[in-house]
Amino acid sequence: MPQNIVVIGAVALGPKAACRFKRLCPEDNVIMIDQSDRISYGGCGIPYYVSGEVNTLEELQMTPYHTIRDAEFFRVNKDVKVLARTKVESIDRQAKKVLIRDLTTGETAELPYDKLVLAMGSAPNRPPFEGIDLEGVHTCTTLDDAQAIREAVAAGSVSGAVVVGGGFIGLEVAVSLADMWGIKTSVVEIADQILPGFLSGNMVKIATHDLRKNDVDVFCGEKVIRIEGENGKVARVVTDKRTIDAELVVMAAGIRPNTEIARAAGIELNERGAIIVNDRMQTSDPDIYAGGDCVTVPNLVTGKPGFFPLGSMANRQGRVIGTNLAGGDARFPGGVGTWAVKLFEQNAAGAGLTIESALREGFDAVNVHVEGFDRAHFYPEHTVMALDLVVERPTRRVLGIQGTSSLGDALVARINAVAPLLQNKPKLEDISNLEVAYSPPFASAMDIINTVANVAENVLEGRNHTLDPDEFAVMWQNRESGSCTFVDTRLASNAESLVEKYPGQWLSIPLEEMEQRLDEIPEDKTVVLICNTGLRSFESQLIMNRHGRKSLSVQGGMASVTKQGNEI
Amino acid sequence: MPQNIVVIGAVALGPKAACRFKRLCPEDNVIMIDQSDRISYGGCGIPYYVSGEVNTLEELQMTPYHTIRDAEFFRVNKDVKVLARTKVESIDRQAKKVLIRDLTTGETAELPYDKLVLAMGSAPNRPPFEGIDLEGVHTCTTLDDAQAIREAVAAGSVSGAVVVGGGFIGLEVAVSLADMWGIKTSVVEIADQILPGFLSGNMVKIATHDLRKNDVDVFCGEKVIRIEGENGKVARVVTDKRTIDAELVVMAAGIRPNTEIARAAGIELNERGAIIVNDRMQTSDPDIYAGGDCVTVPNLVTGKPGFFPLGSMANRQGRVIGTNLAGGDARFPGGVGTWAVKLFEQNAAGAGLTIESALREGFDAVNVHVEGFDRAHFYPEHTVMALDLVVERPTRRVLGIQGTSSLGDALVARINAVAPLLQNKPKLEDISNLEVAYSPPFASAMDIINTVANVAENVLEGRNHTLDPDEFAVMWQNRESGSCTFVDTRLASNAESLVEKYPGQWLSIPLEEMEQRLDEIPEDKTVVLICNTGLRSFESQLIMNRHGRKSLSVQGGMASVTKQGNEI
Question: Per the database record, which ranges form the Rhodanese domain (chains A, B) (predicted)?
């Protein structure tokens, strides 16, 4: 007798699980239920629809082969029945049926199931600000949201916008509004940094500077108090520190799992309301599977429950559920949190823990920051990439990696090489020996991914005494105190302009001349060595070491100082 | 008492080992010996110097911070002594000294060592063809070679060139000569494919077509018999199949380890003449280390001895040797063979075994070929990438991956994600679940790297009945036999021109209409389904399956057919 599979939710995981199952069990019945008739869309594409890079909403609903994935598509091509504009009111686990309500007619009905899939996804947080319901305040999750925002900006009536939340969606939307529509955009983030939990300190500064340089205001550690309107339309956003004029507000202040019906049915949730599943994506009820934004899966770096609301996770989990519905034994062990985001000139990407999250998790961790070429330095089209590596000090275990680069694919090529290893507790030497594809147009013989591990080892062993670019910035700001000597180890021609600008404060001693000119460096001051990326200053430090002289080398050098927007 | 370290060879591994050691043990003595005074250069950059993309030879000898790495550089910056234009005649392991000869004066001397590093690299094969010593016949390993080739082409006297050998260097030089100098270039390769052992069949066809389309002739399975000259200069190359006019011949027919002095000293070599080392890079004499092109290290996929003559391997091994010379315990477990090469429009990259090498190694293996977008299909700047995955059938172990793409960084981002896993015997499901950095500008929610594993699973389980593009090409060539029906499952507008060109032979049944129009497909013929990349044809096959009809879906679809240069 054919099985009845009911899938609640038809955006990402639901359709994947349904179609995978039908491929394996073409004789069985699958019904997919969604509150909207806009189903099976690429929600991650919404910022690119807002920007206009994606022309029509239909493109987000299309297969790669240009067919709209609507109810008819699923019926004809997949033999999956879709109940659109239908809400699941409750799940009766004893009777194994769901109570549904047609949102158009209001009629209710019962639907029996043998196996149930919970794919309800997540909903954007809408904090109860005064003014949250004004016209012009949008969330950014559904195609309806996308359409509303695009219509507002296309109408030309928006000259200022506020994005509440500096996570992925918030930043992507901010870039879209500012870059493609020329709208003065501000990001207000309650945490003290953008991309909290994803990006380490050095990279945060690079990313933030990239946004600011491109006329996006970034206000971190700042709380929205209320939204003020005029004639029912949003007019300004009031934070605890300022008032920002805006005709458009996009709420991107996090999401929460859509798990009310699961909770009501007695399915086990964690304290944050996410459904707990095993590695077969089964809930506490073995006939009920769940995945995507509404579940928690293990964070394979910390071993604790993780929350990875990403379309890529949903798709892979959906396939696992489809296989298991058909009696297979597919596993989804968890995730390490691999991500990427495109800003203006810079792209950022990472995997695993940031230094801040590693310390918070109780690891005795250190962060190493390097700037280096993304391919052979003699190959004409090389670019300087920045990488941060987070390492547990006593074990030398690599906990995470983040980077920024103007070339996103090249950056992702390094992040992807480390990400799949993170769950196996790689050691620094595994990254030192990492075998990435080499040829001068694609990598260096000693690639930056190997270098960042080598530098980390030198730092851990006390062979490389470093200074973060922002520590350097503070010391430079306090230069009048006279406690530091700043030595530029680049070629004299590179140092020239700063030597002229800061006579007596900025010394030029190129690496090549360090040995001869050591006595020009005062012995009673902290010596700060700087160069373009940190290589010359490290080499200079080694020469000083050989003569019993101590120094600090600025990690990432002028490249990082400049990218972080520090004044010098 | 300070140790004396002697390093034989100063190109890649030698300097790396020497400098790493000096950082750890600044009080000890290091002497580095080389037959040339052109030392520590990026040999992998030679093709880009030949092309002119790298302007001067000095750029290949520079650090990333623009200092020439000559003997003086090593003395001043690294406190490493270099004996250039000096040959090591022999090693006396009992007395722990090497006999050296100054190549300028002819004087000999003895040099004692506590530890010795063998970094002699490799030499290009020069088969004893008639005419091999004619003017205009060059190898392509040293900076002297590079200079000679560039001078020849820059003089404008070369209108035809033959590259003997279709490996990495051969192809890179062929591209340089043809692309940047407009020289009619032919590659003659004795094996039946270019990049033998590195690239699987489907990818070979794509890469070969890219070369031919750009006016590089590729003659595989063809043997050079002799080189003919006029007035002492090369005039043509005679193979077993043709005569090719050429004023320039580049010998890139493989390399052999430079291990004569090691052999004479009784150090253990393998049957191919490479030095055997343990995972600390020690030879059979524990006071003698070796690495780079002159050693064999384990192939971590096969478990057998491997040979990876790559600058990237040499650099990483050099660091391990430097650490161990200083009393450390660094390990270099081996390699899986990760590589990349830039051609014309296409780049190729891979790791692990090809299908051909897997079968030769005795694996019951299968190759799966997919074409797919390298980022979200709705993101405007997507490109179609091709991937081949080699899988052991009974265990589902992934043995290797290769790909081609017009965007090299995007391709390498996928190869790098799989390469570091290969040594751990990953299963298909590890690649299905592989967590690569996702965001629409960088990847798909179900990324092509996950897709290739999913397709492989479907093929292995008999759920996806496929045809390689070249199998399709053969069937299409024999279409007059009438044994096959060719069904184009793309939108009618895409199929139109072929339907007109081949009336009655090329059927257009778009996926959307497959269910209704099934009876148009004859039941007594082999049904071949094709689309753009293989997705629509697979979906069409599923519909046919549901109606009990069999079919074959062309892997990679028209994308592969076109890239492989098949006529249709």
Answer: 509-563
Interface check B518 vs A, CB under 8 A: no
Q: Which domains does chain B have, with CATH numbers?
A: 4-122+256-325 (3.50.50.60), 137-253 (3.50.50.60), 346-460 (3.50.50.60), 466-563 (3.40.250.10)
Each residue's pLDDT tens digit, B254-280: 999 999 999 999 999 999 999 999 999
Would an 8 Å CB–CB cutoff place A377 in contact with chain B?
yes
What sign has the CA pseudo-torsion B528, B531, B532, B533?
Answer: negative
Report the pLDDT value the prediction gives residue B201, as an integer from 0 to 100.
Answer: 87
Residue A331 one-letter amino acid: R
Q: How many CB atoms lie within 10 A of CB B513?
A: 15
pLDDT of residue B1: 85
Q: What is the pLDDT of residue A384?
A: 96
**CA neighbor of A8 nearest in space, from A17, B130, A216:** A17
- Residue A387, min C-alpha distance to chain B (Å): 15
Beta bridge mates, A392: A365
Nearest CA of chain A to the CA of B380: how many Å?
A: 7
Element (H, E) at B227: strand B224-230
Q: What does the pLDDT read at residue A64?
A: 86
**Nearest 5 degrees, angle CA B270-CA B275-CA B279?**
105
In the structure encoding, which two tokens stand for residue B471, read together?
């199998």
Predicted local distance difference test score (pLDDT) of residue A162: 98
HEC letters along B323-389: HHHCCCCCCCCCECCEEEEECCCCEEEEEECCHHHHHHCCCCEEEEEEEEECCCCCCCCCCEEEEEE
Closest residue in A to B78 (Cα) is A543
Return the SS3 of A525.
coil
CA distance linking residue A136 with residue B399, whole number of Å: 54
Percent above pLDDT 70 for chain B = 100
- The rounded distance, in Å, linking the Cα atoms of A155 and A150 is 8
Q: Is B419 in contact with A417 (Cβ distance < 8 A)?
A: yes
Cβ B542–A23 below 8 Å, yes or no? yes
What is the Cα–Cα distance from B222 to B208, expressed in whole angstroms? 15
Q: Which amino acid is at B511?
A: L
B26 and A CB contact within 8 Å:
yes
Q: Compute φ and ψ for B141, nearest 5 degrees.
A: -120, -40
Element (H, E) at B494: helix B492-501
Of A297, A267, A294, nearest to A280 by C-alpha is: A297
Is the Cβ pair B433, A62 closer than 8 Å? no
pLDDT-based confidence at residue B450 (cuts at 50, 70, 90): very high
A44 lies within 8 A of chain B by CB: yes
CA dist B541 to A72, A199, A349, Å?
Answer: 19, 45, 38
pLDDT given at position A546: 87
- Strands of A252-383, DSSP E: 255-257, 275-276, 288-290, 295-298, 305-306, 338-342, 347-352, 365-373
| Contact criterion met (CB below 8 Å) for B342 and B172 | yes
Report the C-alpha dihedral over residues B98, B103, B107, B109, rounded to 10 degrees. -10
SS3 A155: coil
Contacts of B50 in chain A (CB under 8 A): none
Q: Annotated catalytic sites of A, by residue?
A: 44
B155 to chain A, any CB pair closer than 8 A? The answer is no
State how far residue A433 is from chain B, nearest Cα, in angstroms: 6
Query: CB–CB of B122/B217 below 8 Å?
Result: no
| Ordered mean pLDDT values, 10 residues apiece, chain A (568 residues) | 96 97 95 96 96 95 90 92 98 98 97 98 94 96 95 95 98 97 97 95 95 98 97 97 98 96 98 97 98 97 96 96 97 97 98 97 97 96 96 98 98 98 97 97 97 96 93 94 95 95 95 93 96 94 92 96 89
Q: Does A539 touch chain B (CB under 8 A)?
A: yes
